[in-house]
User: Which sequence fits this backbone?
């Protein structure tokens, strides 16, 4: 892996989570909040599972309040891809409200005034070399931040993303994964920016499945977080079943677990690029396994994971939340 961190490390890795919450996003945020290996500096909101970014930001605030972490800032970002109209179908998987259509209380917490891209740039400038950008939505906010600060790849520590599908089929079409497909031009800029990337694409995220007995075990932990995860996943797991999968993939948490427990993963370095114009292949992430592009590998591509240990860790951590 590009960066190995030991479970005993003294200082947590500072992270900003760029997210479109989202059922699996909310699950990933809760995992981060429960994990001493990372310190969440902020949540930045991007369109993706909906283009109503105010609603997605409200969902982020709901999750932070549930975890009793209202001090963590939420900054609202892009509502549209860089160059094309939004065409996502997130509501069919995450519900119209992004949280599986369960009723959620109006949070007291409000997002900060600062736009997401500016927040990312200012945090990275204030703590050079320290902040890891964890992206679990389309890469539009990061592309906008790169526009504001071309030195961002040197100012950030690294980028860890959930997105793409190099060695396996896509989930929006035969070759493209939703986060990259939602804004391929932004993803391309990010892969060309010159920072070390850890990529949790469908290659690895589809290997971690949660079924109803497991989700019931989270519900029965006796805390609000476990109950919330059970409730929001009712809609999401049904959407998987309707598509022929007996249980659900928990994509976004893989990006977090790769930071918290890198030793659970197998990976390979590879140069990744993004197709932006193909009639059938727009949004495809291509792995240059033979070095034919003539560029050194910028991406550590996660390929396999100990799913059993992942699920055990997830439950253990969620149990520590309110
Ligand atoms: C990704 O798309 C979104 O629907 C999920 O939240 C995840 O980030 C999976 O392709
Ligand atoms: Ca997401």
Assistant:
């Amino acid at each position: 892996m590009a960066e190995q961190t030991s479970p005993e490390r003294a200082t947590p890795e500072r992270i900003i989570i760029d997210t479109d919450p989202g059922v699996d996003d909310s699950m990933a945020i809760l995992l981060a909040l429960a994990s001493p290996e990372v310190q969440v500096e902020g949540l930045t909101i991007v369109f993706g599972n909906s283009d109503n970014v105010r609603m997605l930001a409200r969902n982020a605030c709901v999750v932070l309040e549930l975890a009793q972490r209202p001090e963590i800032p939420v900054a609202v970002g892009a509502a549209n891809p860089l160059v094309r109209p939004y065409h996502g179908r997130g509501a069919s998987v995450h519900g119209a409200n992004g949280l599986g259509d369960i009723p959620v209380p109006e949070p007291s917490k409000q997002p900060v005034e600062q736009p997401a891209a500016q927040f990312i740039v200012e945090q990275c400038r204030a703590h050079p070399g320290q902040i890891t950008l964890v992206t679990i939505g389309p890469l539009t906010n990061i592309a906008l931040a790169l526009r504001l600060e071309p030195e961002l790849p040197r100012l950030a520590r690294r980028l860890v993303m959930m997105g793409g599908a190099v060695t396996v089929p896509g989930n929006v079409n035969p070759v493209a994964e939703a986060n990259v497909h939602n804004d391929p031009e932004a993803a391309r800029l990010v892969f060309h920016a010159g920072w070390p990337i850890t990529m949790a694409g469908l290659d690895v995220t589809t290997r971690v499945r949660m079924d109803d007995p497991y989700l019931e075990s989270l519900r029965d932990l006796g805390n609000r977080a476990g109950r919330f995860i059970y409730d929001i996943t009712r809609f999401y797991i049904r959407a998987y079943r309707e598509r022929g999968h007996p249980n659900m993939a928990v994509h976004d948490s893989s990006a977090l677990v790769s930071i918290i427990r890198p030793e659970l993963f197998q990976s390979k370095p590879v140069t990744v690029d993004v197709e932006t114009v193909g009639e059938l292949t727009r949004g495809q992430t291509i792995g240059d396994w033979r070095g034919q592009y003539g560029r050194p590998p910028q991406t550590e591509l996660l390929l396999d994971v100990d799913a059993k240990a992942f699920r055990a860790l997830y439950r253990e951590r969620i149990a520590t939340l309110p």
User: Anything to note?
Assistant: The domain at 13-318 is CATH 3.90.245.10 (Inosine-uridine Nucleoside N-ribohydrolase; Chain A). The pocket of calcium ion (ligand 2) is lined by residues 19-20, 22, 25, 48, 136-137, 252 (CB under 6 Å).
